[in-house]
């Protein structure tokens, strides 16, 4: 797909165990967000070490030069959102340049 010009962006957003627990507890207390948290979330949290091993293996096995992973530290939601936008923007710009589309004529400051 990437050989045909597809811009492929793979992002893994990572939060720490402490931050996950903090968010879970916050959701429990918030009536508007409580629906997002289920008993399954708590059960899965107990398996976090196994999930982390599987995630590490997935990242190692599927990270390639033509489709690399970007791991984003997501404890800070604003930082994570900006990092994702910057990552996607940079990938699109590289894809356009690779396709021979010049960016110099575009107003990049707006």
From TrEMBL:
The UniProt entry, under SUPFAM superfamilies, shows:
P-loop containing nucleoside triphosphate hydrolases (SSF52540)
InterPro entries tied to this protein: P-loop_NTPase, PPK2-related
Instruction: Tell me which Pfam families the record gives.
Output: PPK2
Q: Which residues form the Polyphosphate kinase-2-related domain?
A: 2-94
Name of the featured protein: Unannotated protein
